[in-house]
Write a structure and sequence with these properties.
With 552 residues, the protein is an alpha+beta fold. The protein has 14 helices and 28 strands. A hairpin with a 2-residue loop joins strand 8 and strand 9.
Length: 552
């Protein structure tokens, strides 16, 4: 019997996928053993058998007694720098006795996997899932009466806030702390929103070595400045502050920082931090976001040049700015990095991604926020799904609810989930599903704001010969391409693609479970099954395609 085990990871968690080419009789799931830094432990399952009274208690169960009934599983309890490995043991039910089938186990991989990120491309993710079971249970265990909004806006002494911020907040804070200490460093920032106290304080400490272009945020015209309080505060500091107050039809939507070395007045760009993150409490702790640090002098210089063009344009959209943005910017060879700056007049950035999507061979994964309704990259992915039905595609689109001023106009379909070749529109119940609130052991969940998925990322063929990650501040639609200050990075790097793929699937699974509970109102999940044909039933054509993708 041939069996396959694959471990994919980023610096937050690991995704384990396994597969057998033959059915194991009486198999009702799997025990998972993890080796972390050389120490083996049996992993636990939080779900018991449906016919077991113990299932009614919110316990954690050893997976060799209450097995994992899936073939793809995410381990959230690993940490950056750890050496990890796993072995999989089938669990069979014989004469009503649950036992390990050690003859069919999949042993540890020969080499351990190190939890972490790359050297040149460093990806960082937050948790941001305020509407989640781990958040609700942790909050209750801490005895906290604070609302999610209070925790998100709290200081660094709040452990739950720091957990929600994950590696993204930790590494952004550390990056700024390093600049504070090293007096030879300067930073050049172009920010859409700035309202996170920790970050503001660090920029103030950097002082005159901080050069900041601050936009007016999500404003409809030049008379509204969403960053007015921060702007007024920073105007009395040593920070070199430039206003970019743009009008209707535009957003100064960048979120990038260039770290430079200043040697006797000579500015040398060294690295750039960009991604989907708005520098706000919600951005860091209340939404799903990503950040990427690119340690490449050539690309950092291109970002610094863009910063200079924005500074020169002030609050206008000049011909000089459009001309500079009209060509793709490349990183140092042999790095395969192409960056587009917006606005553009002809959607060259989107077209370059459409071409890559057309050439996808194995799979497409995505998280998107507010790309628009027509000619977006989301529309292109829908088109690919019809043209190439055998390609594995999973993703979530978070469409911001329609508002007029501060009044909510429409909250019909804030979340769209792409699954099995179809797009499912769903309402707020996907995030807070009443269908499972009464389930045994299920804690009431709460939320803040209307935006849950704020990442803008597409991963193409992450485990194939030509993997690509597309990410940045660009919302991946014509509005962002033609109208906004934005950036879109197209990177071909296998390690980076794996890291983003793991993050996307973890978020997809979180919301897909809530979605399934919403649409299947007549079905209440009661626990694990003891169906002796479970494995055969589970491994349908849809699952086979999924396992082929993740075990490659």
């Amino acid at each position: 019997m041939k069996a396959i085990l694959s471990i994919k990871s980023n610096n937050d968690y690991a995704l384990i996928a396994w597969n057998y080419n033959e059915y194991i009789p009486n198999c009702i799931g799997f025990a998972l053993y993890r080796k972390i830094n050389g120490q083996e432990e049996l992993l636990e399952n939080q779900i018991g058998f449906a016919d077991d009274l113990e299932n009614n208690k919110p316990y954690k169960y050893p997976s060799n007694k209450y097995p994992i009934q899936r073939f793809v599983w995410t381990d959230f309890k690993v940490y950056n720098g750890a050496k990890i490995n796993y072995r999989i043991v089938p669990i069979v039910l014989e004469n009503n006795i649950v036992k390990e089938h050690s003859a069919k186990e999949i042993p540890y991989l020969k080499e351990d996997v190190i939890i972490g990120t790359g050297e040149i491309f460093k990806s960082y993710f937050n948790v941001g899932l305020v509407s989640s079971q781990f958040y609700s249970k942790w909050k209750n265990n801490l005895g906290s009466n604070l609302r999610p909004v209070d925790i998100v806006h709290s200081d660094q002494s709040n452990k739950l806030r720091n957990f929600l911020g994950g590696e993204l907040s930790k590494n952004l804070f550390q990056l700024l702390d390093d600049v504070i200490i090293d007096k030879s460093k300067e930073v050049f920032l172009a920010l859409f929103e700035l309202d996170q106290e920790d970050l503001i304080e660090k920029l103030i400490k950097i002082g005159d070595r901080c050069h900041l272009i601050l936009a007016n945020g999500a404003a409809n015209n030049k008379k509204i400045d969403k960053n007015s309080q921060t702007r007024q505060r920073l105007s009395t500091t040593q920070i070199e502050l430039f206003d970019r107050i743009v009008g209707s039809g535009h957003l100064s939507h960048n979120k990038f920082m260039v770290v430079c070395n200043n040697s006797n007045g000579n500015i040398t760009p060294e690295e750039v931090f960009t991604g989907s993150l708005n520098w706000t409490p919600n951005g860091l702790f209340g939404q799903v976001n990503n950040g990427i640090l690119i340690k490449d002098n050539k690309l950092a210089k291109e970002y610094h040049n863009e910063w200079l063009e924005l500074k020169s344009a002030k609050s206008d959209y000049t011909k000089k700015l459009y001309d500079y943005n009209s060509s793709v910017k490349k990183g140092t060879l042999p790095l395969k990095t192409n960056t587009w700056f917006n606005p553009l007049k002809d959607e060259k950035d989107l077209q370059s991604v459409r071409d890559l999507l057309d050439n996808a061979k194995e799979g497409i994964l995505f998280l998107m926020f507010n790309p628009g309704t027509k000619n977006t990259l989301y529309n292109k992915i829908l088109e690919i799904s019809k043209q190439k039905p055998d390609i594995y595609i999973r993703g979530i689109l978070n469409q911001e609810p329609v508002t007029k001023g501060d009044k909510l106009v429409d909250l019909k379909h804030p979340i769209k989930i792409f699954d099995k070749g179809k797009t499912y529109k769903t309402d707020w119940e996907t995030i807070l599903p009443s269908a499972i609130k009464e389930q045994d052991g299920w804690e009431d969940e709460s939320t803040i704001g209307l935006v849950r998925i704020h990442s803008k990322v597409i991963v193409i063929d992450p485990f194939g010969k030509n993997p690509f990650v597309i990410t940045g501040s660009n919302n991946m639609g014509p509005k962002a391409s033609k109208g906004n200050d934005d950036n879109l990075n197209i990177i071909s790097d296998k390690k980076l693609a794996e890291e983003y793929a793991v993050n996307i699937l973890a978020n997809y699974n979180h919301y897909h479970f809530r979605f399934s509970s919403k649409v299947n109102k007549n079905y209440k999940y009661k626990g694990l099954t003891k169906d002796l044909k479970w494995m055969k039933t589970y491994l349908n054509e849809y699952r086979k395609r999924e396992l082929d993708f993740w075990t490659k």
